[in-house]
Specification:
heterodimer, A: about 190 residues, mainly alpha, three-stranded antiparallel beta sheet, 5 strands, B: about 550 residues, two-stranded antiparallel sheet, two-stranded antiparallel ribbon, 19 helices, about 65% helix, potassium transport (chain B), cell inner membrane (chain B), ion transport (chain B), transport (chain B)
Chain lengths: ~190, ~550
């Protein structure tokens, strides 16, 4: 009993050093030295060199000249609620919850008022609340509005959308998605 | 829809290709044969053994083994509880987080030491980098290793060998299996875009001028052991749906396969260690078929979407509530079935927002516990079901039941029943108590039948040591933290103790020579009967909950 206790204490200490100190330190050093962009959160900058976000994290867009993101239960970790740690979260509404239906009815109305034909991903809120993507169909639904607001030739806008669409992995796994932030940043930088 | 099922088929093919490789490797490790890691691992192991005061590795008796497992888990749990309670004074706390409430810290420590990783908190707002990497990340290795060690001891006992030395198997599981794979996997995840930094959250001004706080941290090394060790506790609140935990479909593929590869591989390991690979493969395919059926149910449900919302859309669209665009309906459904089946508990989409078939399947996974099953323990439960089936079929034909040439007697059946019965006890009794006080205790966030699922799911997840949840539930309360802790402990340690005594007892029995009347367990017929026994026993116990929860909700939606 006592012997077991002593062995447990000593092995806990040694395994802790191995798995909670040495192992993370190795990954941290490799990350910071070899892959600093990814290791620090894939932060991207605008034309002035100002950090405007992360290529992997979505943002809220409301202006006519931007593509809009999906609904987020946490407002894309923006504003006072997110300070200082940053947050993530989902609605966790059940399919049978009346709140889901009324929220989606309101969202569909808002989109239709702005001449956007609702797609599933634009009505349903995302899992992380930070989803950087919309479906290609959702981008097409907003095409005319953005083209008009920015007076951008349709071919140019289409090629920008294509450029910022991430396809399936190996052409098979997952669903294609248009990265809203990098697309909007590219629109600003034209 | 076809494209979706092609994705599922390919991922399952990858699993079938990789799990036996790992299974064979694990068998080599625990049979003491040489592997290509010897040169690096052996000096490291000698150092750990010498430093821990383990000079020889005699096989332990059941009592000795159990006390070693329980005491070491207790020491680790207390150590982590103390780190969590004093995190405010410890380093790597860039956002100045204070200590959590004692009951939350207690629940967290128990949840991680039991390989469950049920989280009544959001990582980014509650625990410091030191607590996450130094306390929780540590338990992710040791709790998974404890599970593997117990499974190996169980396999040894069943096949008539001495059960082995707990500390030796614990250390070998880490140095030979968990740590090497994690190191490679963490680097792959880094390349894919998962951060690994000690810098605090990035504060940025968005394109529209709002202020956004982007949580970061040492995620990559944490993420891979989270999946590999079937731990499932996210660095961030929203787990593997978070783009920093699971940024793209390369990462998602890696994480999906790696969470299943050890429990699937351990079945093959068993076949090799028992000298009967055929039996291993039969069980493998039995689980595979059950798994495939459950995937199909969940995936079709998500694909057909929510009828109420489809009316607004004017067409049938998949249910995307709580899902990420990049994963879509199919990879979220596959993940949901895999994570609840394997007791990983990580999520890449919200289970609370799954359609009723998805809720049905995830709950069924938690009730059955053998659709691959928990790290190590799942494989052991499979054999408990085999033993019970031998007993049932033996009764039918009036023979003394035997398994692997050893008689199944009263002691074995008592211990197997205990393993089987502790699960409903740890789920149904607290569920009943909690549902009796819906306003004060339950914290239900979704009305109607779904609320019953929320409460049952939380205890099922705790008792099965899974850790996923119907996360709308307001569960960071004194009641939930303490009552879920009861289910966590009962669901983990009662079966472990019973498994070890069962295995040790089997190992000490005189082998019975095989005769013409011996019931062979390595046949398709017997495996089919086992599958039937698993489903009937599971259904008899838990059908009322499934009917009151997801089934009723499904009828309500039409």
């Amino acid at each position: 009993m006592i012997r077991n206790f002593v062995i447990s204490l000593r092995s806990t200490a040694l395994l802790w050093i191995l798995t909670a100190l040495i192992y993370p330190a190795i990954v941290l050093v490799i990350g910071q030295l070899v892959f600093p962009y990814q290791a620090n959160g894939s932060l991207i900058t605008d034309s002035q060199g100002q950090v405007v976000g992360s290529a992997l994290i979505g943002q809220t867009f409301t202006e006519e000249g931007y593509f809009w993101s999906r609904p987020s239960a946490i407002n894309y970790s923006e504003g006072a609620d997110a300070s200082p740690t940053g947050i993530s979260g989902a609605s966790n509404l059940a399919p049978s919850n009346p709140d889901l239906l009324s929220r989606i009815e309101a969202e569909a109305q808002r989109l239709e008022d702005n001449a956007v034909q609702p797609t599933a991903d634009l009505l349903y809120s995302s899992g992380s609340g930070l989803d950087p993507h919309i479906s290609p169909a959702a981008a097409q639904a907003q095409f005319d509005r953005v083209a008009k607001a920015r007076s951008i030739p349709p071919q140019e806008l289409q090629s920008l959308i294509t450029k910022h669409t991430e396809g399936r992995f190996l052409g098979i796994f997952g669903e294609p998605g248009v990265n809203v932030l990098t697309l909007n940043l590219a629109l600003d930088n034209r | 829809m076809l494209q979706g099922f092609v994705q599922i088929a390919l991922i399952l093919a990858i699993l079938v290709a990789t799990a036996p490789l790992l299974g064979r490797y694990m068998a080599r490790v625990f049979l003491g044969q040489s592997t290509w890691l010897d040169k690096i691992a052996r000096p490291l192991e000698s150092l750990i053994f010498a430093g821990s005061g383990i000079t020889k590795h005699p096989s332990m008796g059941a009592t000795q083994y159990v006390s070693a497992a329980l005491i070491s888990n207790l020491v680790m749990g207390v150590f982590v509880f103390l780190i969590l309670m004093f995190q405010g004074s410890l380093p790597l706390n860039p956002t100045g987080l204070a200590a959590p409430s004692w009951d939350l810290a207690l629940h967290t420590a128990i949840s991680f030491v039991t390989n469950t990783n049920q989280q009544h908190y959001s990582g980014e707002t509650t625990y410091t980098y030191f607590s996450q990497a130094g306390a929780l990340g540590f338990l992710m290795f040791t709790s998974a290793a404890t599970g593997i060690a117990v499974a190996i001891a169980f396999i040894r006992g069943l096949t008539g060998q001495a059960i082995g030395n707990f500390y030796q198997d614990l250390v070998l599981s880490i140095t030979r299996i968990l740590l090497p794979i994690s190191l490679v996997g963490a680097i792959l995840l880094l390349v894919a875009g998962v951060p690994e930094t000690l810098a605090g959250p990035a504060q940025v001004t968005t394109l529209e001028g709002a202020t956004q706080w982007i949580a970061r941290g040492p995620v990559a090394h944490f993420e891979i052991i989270k999946e590999l060790g079937e731990n499932g506790g996210g660095f961030f609140g929203i787990n593997s749906a978070h783009p920093f935990e699971n940024p793209n479909n390369f990462a998602n593929l890696l994480e999906t396969v790696i969470m299943m590869v050890i429990p699937a591989g351990l079945i093959i390991t068993y076949g090799i260690m028992a000298g009967n690979p055929e039996q291993g493969w039969l069980i493998f395919w039995m689980v595979f078929i059950l798994y495939g059926i459950l995937i199909a149910i969940a995936a079709v449900g998500e694909f057909q979407g929510n009828p109420l919302i489809n009316q607004i859309l004017g067409e049938t669209q998949p249910n995307l509530e709580g899902k990420e665009v990049r994963f879509g309906w199919v990879l979220t459904a596959l993940w949901a079935v895999s994570t609840t089946g394997t007791m990983c508990g990580a999520v890449n989409g919200m289970h609370d927002s799954l359609m009723p078939p998805g809720g049905f399947v995830t709950l069924s996974d938690l009730f059955l516990q053998i659709i691959w099953g928990g790290q190590g323990t799942g494989t052991a439960y499979l054999f408990v079901f085999l033993i019970l089936t031998v007993f049932l079929t033996g009764l039918m034909v009036g023979r003394t039941p035997e398994f692997l040439g050893r008689k199944i007697e009263k002691r074995e059946i008592v211990l197997a029943s205990l393993i089987l019965l502790i699960h409903p006890i740890a789920i149904l009794i607290p569920t009943a108590i909690t549902l009796a006080f819906p306003d004060t205790l339950a914290g239900i966030s979704n009305p109607g039948f779904h609320g019953i699922s929320q409460v049952a799911y939380e205890y099922a997840s705790a008792a099965a040591n899974n850790g996923s949840g119907f996360e709308g539930l307001a569960d960071n309360t004194l009641w939930w933290n303490l009552s879920a802790s009861f289910s966590l402990i009962a669901g983990r340690y009662v079966p472990i103790v019973a498994l070890i005594f069962l295995a040790d007892g089997m190992a000490r029995k005189q082998p019975v020579p095989e005769t013409s009347g011996t019931l062979h367990t390595d046949t398709t017929l017997f495996t089919g009967i086992t599958a039937g026994a698993i489903i009937i026993l599971g259904a008899l116990t838990f059908l009322p909950i499934l009917v009151l929860g997801p089934v009723a909700e499904a009828f309500n939606l039409v």
